[in-house]
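Lecture notes, unit on protein representations.

Consider one protein chain, 489 amino acids long.
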Amino acid sequence: MRRIFYLFLTLFLLLNGSVFSNNHCTTIQDRPIKAVFVGASITYGYGVTNREKEAYPAQLRKLLGKNYHVDNFGVSGCTMLRKGNLPYWNTNEFQLALKDQPDIVFIDLGGNDSKLINREHMDDFEHDCHDMVQLFMQLPTHPRVILLLPVVSFVDDTTGIWDPEIVRSIIPHIQNVAYQDSVELIDVHPLLINKPDLLPDKIHPNTQGSAIIAQNLYGYLTQQRDIDFNIFNNLHQAITISSFYGYRCADFPFDGRSCKVVQPKISAKGHPWIWRARFWGNESQTDIALLQRGFHVVYCDVAELFGNDEAISHWNHFYNILHAAGLSDKAAMEGMSRGAVYVYNWAAVNPDKVACTYVDNPLLDMKSWPCGLGKLPPGKSEFEDFKADYHVTNQEQLVNFKGSPIDKVDQIVKGKYPMLILCADADEAALPDENTLPFEKKVRALNGNIMVIHKPGFKHHPHSFPNPTPIVDFILKATGYYIPVDNNH
């Protein structure tokens, strides 16, 4: 199915011009690109003062400017489910959307399907969603079909639009369809998860909340893309394909280690990537948001080598195959907890290969843990791993150990790349006063480029933010992929 989709897409682009923009204003045959929105009340604009101007599709239309034509076919209360209490399938707007000859179709359905009255039909959701996707894909214009995950709901009535059901059931179903049908996917669910005041009735975003959604879609649509790039064709490894939140993930052994490469639906120009150092799949909202923007997500399991020479050697080999396969010269590095040791120990040796670093409640001094020379007791099995990794056999060697990131700040700052640390001030596992704070002080003393975002009252878990926008924006800016919003269109 994926090959058929790209065959249609390539033929369409050759015959009609590109809907993917190398600048922000590409048209098709000297006409505006036509985007249609299929959805329910949030798409329609319920909850804003003037839906014709303030519904999120209308705000997107303004941001995109005259080279796009946007039609809003939202109908309040509708479901994706054919057996739902108000199926979108039965509306006049659905027929109008099909007849509109769109170049891009956004499908924003699923929130109402989470109501108690509709949950008994949930087994049909993927089938119905697949059918709707196929109906649009088979139109003569062969449009891009983009599935939107539902907006967060703050309703506390379990019979209504119930967010636990959205997270547990609706979102995985939509991700499965995006994976099986090889269509694009945008996760708007986190965008307002920390902004309940922007949903006055707990369901519908107001004008400001709708603007946040529109700005996210604007960044997505105007991201420069390389539709021809497929890293899987260049890896020259025996890979197994699985789904990573609706994206294709290649698993393969390399250099004696388990590796993963997740492919965006359509790569950004330049083929950027984020390298997860440790704890694959934990708090993946940043990775998912970057996949949307055309980043690849990669992983090479070097646990539990604690960033020693062997780990660095494996990662050097892994970098070489990814770069040879077409990924950009520099990676955005991501490390949670002890993952920060791997990030910075590799970055200290490879400063020219790092675009930026994001570490989260980081371990930066292994004397603090697992060695137990600080306020915490030593780790159990981890301390034994550490001693074997670094050939530490006595207390003197332990006390004089200089293999942690905090000992390599002078090498780290030579890369001149921006660094972001999320620091939970009540972290009980990677103590800030033994890790983040002295590391930050040393970096600043050497004029390094570092930003620390504090999380007052938070412990070691959970990592990241439910809404990863601050992290994502940092990485996009550091790598040159941030797209500012122009409200003057």
